[in-house]
Amino acid sequence: MASLFGTDGVRGRANDDLTPELALSLARATAKLLLSAGGRVIIGRDTRVSGRMLEGALASGFAACGVDVFLAGVIPTPAIPFLIKDERADLGAVISASHNPPQDNGIKFFNSRGMKLTVEEEQAIEGALDSPLCGFVAVGRIAPLEATASRYAAFLTGTIEIEEIDLSGHTIVVDCAYGATGTIAPRVLRHFNAEVIELHTSPDGDKINQECGSTHLAPLRAAVREHRADLGIAFDGDGDRVLLVSSDGETIDGDQMMGIMALHMKRKGTLCPPLLVATVMSNLGLEQALAQQGVKMIRTPVGDRNVAQTMLTQKAKIGGEQSGHIILSDHSVTGDGILTVVKLLEIAHERGVSLHTLAAQIPHYPQVRCDIEAEDAKELLRRPSIKRAVEEERQNLGGKGRIVVRASGTQPLIRVMVEAEDESLCQRVCAALVAAIEAQGGADRSCL
C-alpha cells in the first residue's frame, strides 16, 4: 500500500483523496502522538475553495483531543513556522497543495521548532489513524489568531541587515498566483518604496496556480515587458517558493538565487561553514561556480524536508531547490519565497548591480526534463527493463552529464531529468528513457 504522506505532507484531490474525515483523523492521531491536552496548534491555509472545509475538520480533530486551536486564516506556508515561534505554539498545520491545481489540497505539519515532521513521525501518525485515539478530555478552544499578516510582514522587512533599502524608481511586477501571498508580498515590496504592479493577487481559490505564478511564467514575462519593469517576481500558491524574471525576460531560478546569496556571503566572510545544500536536481553549473570560490555543494534527494534536515546536521546557512524553494537558516527553518526576494533585493542594493547581472555568474548546463503519468510510479521504476534503460543511458553520457529518474512525491508522475554540456545529447537520452518508461505503462508525457 502506498504511503499516505508524500515528500510534502498528505496531498490529493480534495473531497476525494483528501476528505474531511481523513483531516479529522489526521488531527486526532497527531494530537495523541505528539501533543497533550492543553497543547496549542496554529492552522493556516491558502485560498483553495476546499480550504475552509478541511480547516474545520482539522480544527475539530485537535479540539476533540483537548488541544487549543488558533486559526491564522489565509497565510503563506512559511508564516506558520514564524507564528509557531512567536506564539510559542506546540505544532503548526498548513492546508495547501502548494503549486498543484485548484482541485487538489494537502495537509502538512510543523513541530514546535517550525520544522516539518520527520518521516518516522509521519509514519507513526499514519499507523495510528485507525486505532483508538483520544479518550474523554475537556474540549479545546478554537479561535482566530489576530494580525497574522501584519506580524509576518514586519518580520520579513525586519530581516534587512544593512541600511534601509530604497527602491524608489524601480518597477516590480509581482505575480501571486491567486494564492496566499497576495496581500503580503505587495505590502512588503512597497515598504521599500518600489512601484509595484500586481498580477493575480486577488484570493481566488478557483484559479490558484492556473496559468500563473511560479509554474507559469509567461504572464509575468508579458507584464514585465509591458510595464518596462526592472524585475518580475512569481510565487506559487502557498508562497514557499519563488522564481524571478529579469527586465530582459530571462528566468532567474532557484539555483541562481542560491548561488547569488552563497557567493555574496562567501565574499563577506559570513558563509560559515562554506557550503550550500541542494538537491539532485540542481544544475551542475551551480556546483562548479561554487567550487571555484571554495564553496562545497551537498546534494540531497528531492524535497525541502531533506534539504532542511541536511542543513541542520551540517549547520548550513543556505539550502534549497532549483524550483525556488530556498531556506535561509539565519532567518527561517523552511522555504520562504518572500524572504528570499527581500534578501536578494538587499544583496543587489548592497552590490549596486541588478540581480540579472549577479545571476549571470551562475552558469547553466542544458537540462531536459519530462514528466510521465503513472498510477504507481515507484512500482514502475522497480522494473528491471527500466533499470537497464537508465544504466545504458548513463553509459551513453560517458561521464559528461547526469540522469535523475524518480517518482514524484506529490503527484502520480515519473520525473525524468537529463543534464549534459551538449543539449542534443540531453534530448536523445531523455527521449530514450521516456520511450522505455512508456513501453512499461507510462502515459501522457509533458516535457520541458
What is the total tally of β strands?
20
> Beta-strand level of the residues, as a percent range?
15-25%
State the name of the first-level CATH class of the largest domain.
Alpha Beta
- Helix coverage percent: 25-40%
CATH third-level topology of the largest domain: Alpha-D-Glucose-1,6-Bisphosphate, Chain A, domain 3
Overall 3D form: globular
| Count, helices | 15
Broad structural category: alpha/beta
Count of discrete domains? 4
Q: Which regions contain 5 or more consecutive residues with pLDDT less than 50?
A: none
CATH A-level architecture of the largest domain = 3-Layer(aba) Sandwich
Order of strands across the main sheet: 1-2-6-5-3-4-7
Distance between the termini: 31 Å
Q: What's the alpha carbon Rg, rounded to whole Å? A: 22 Å
Main sheet specs: 7 strands, mixed
Name of the CATH homologous superfamily of the largest domain: Alpha-D-Glucose-1,6-Bisphosphate, subunit A, domain 3
The chain-level mean pLDDT equals 94
Q: What would the keywords be for this entry?
A:
alpha/beta; 4 domains; 37% helix; 448 residues; five-stranded mixed β-sheet; Alpha-D-Glucose-1,6-Bisphosphate, Chain A, domain 3
What does this molecule look like?
- This protein has 448 residues and is an alpha/beta fold.
- The protein folds into four domains: 5-146, Alpha-D-Glucose-1,6-Bisphosphate, Chain A, domain 3; 152-250, Alpha-D-Glucose-1,6-Bisphosphate, Chain A, domain 3 (3-Layer(aba) Sandwich); 254-336 and 347-359, Alpha-D-Glucose-1,6-Bisphosphate, Chain A, domain 3 (3-Layer(aba) Sandwich); 367-447, TATA-Binding Protein, CATH 3.30.310.
- The protein has 15 helices and 20 strands.
- The longest helix has 17 residues, at 423-439.
- It starts with a strand and ends with a strand.
- The model has no long low-confidence stretch (mean pLDDT 94).
